[in-house]
């Protein structure tokens, strides 16, 4: 296995902006780092399942991708655009103990099944770097855990950014929300254009 190429691919793919990272940063900004931990762990759990499914269903997916990819791309991009609009037009409400229902473990885990960036990343990592060299159950589970761990680390990093700059972000909430919403919209459009 070309280890360096594999590591470069997964680090760049995991740490670049995407729905998981933007949402983790936004939730940490709104609710603090500690309250965002469950979202980050949900991302890892959901991505572990996606990576494992990609590992075991890779040959089947290769045959079905032309039909499935289009629908997943449309669904995922539409959801990302919906999130972008919600983020851009979010207004700070009076202090409330009620948290966003999207800042949950289960929501984050389920998001991985409609996250086109994550699914395409998992399919590419598994088909290009893992299956040609490793096919044992232990190896497939180990690599899936490694990819999931990296996704948790990535969302934690983005959460820390949102938490550390919370005071600054609060002072500039509207421009920040617009910028984050536009970046998320850009991610959605770039997926559709590919």
Automatic annotation (TrEMBL):
Domain of life: Bacteria
Cleaved signal peptide residues: none
The keyword Transmembrane belongs to this UniProt entry's keyword annotation: yes
Membrane topology term: Multi-pass membrane protein
Keyword tags: Cell membrane, Membrane, Transmembrane, Transmembrane helix
Subcellular location: Cell membrane
Pfam families recorded: LysE
Chief location category: membrane
Residue spans crossing the bilayer: 6-27, 39-61, 67-85, 105-131, 137-162, 174-193
Keyword ATP-binding in record: no
PANTHER family: ARGININE EXPORTER PROTEIN ARGO (PTHR30086), ARGININE EXPORTER PROTEIN ARGO-RELATED (PTHR30086:SF20)
UniProt protein name: Amino acid transporter LysE
Organism: Paenibacillus cineris
């Amino acid at each position: 296995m070309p280890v360096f190429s594999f590591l470069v691919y997964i680090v760049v793919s995991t740490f670049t902006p995407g729905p998981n990272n933007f949402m983790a940063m936004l939730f940490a900004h709104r609710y603090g780092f500690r309250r965002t931990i469950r979202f980050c762990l949900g991302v890892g759990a959901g991505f572990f399942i996606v990576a494992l499914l990609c590992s075991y269903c890779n040959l089947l997916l290769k045959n079905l991708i032309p039909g499935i990819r289009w629908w997943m791309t449309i669904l995922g991009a539409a959801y990302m655009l919906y999130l972008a609009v919600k983020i851009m037009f979010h207004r700070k409400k009076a202090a409330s103990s009620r948290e966003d229902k999207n800042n949950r473990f289960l929501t984050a885990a389920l998001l991985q099944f409609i996250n086109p960036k994550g699914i395409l990343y998992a399919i590419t990592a598994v088909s290009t770097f893992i299956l040609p060299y490793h096919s044992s159950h232990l190896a497939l589970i180990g690599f899936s855990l490694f990819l999931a761990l990296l996704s948790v680390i990535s969302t934690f990093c983005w959460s820390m950014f949102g938490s550390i700059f919370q005071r600054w972000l609060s002072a500039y909430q509207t421009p920040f929300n617009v910028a984050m919403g536009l970046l998320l919209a850009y991610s959605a459009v770039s997926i559709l254009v590919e």
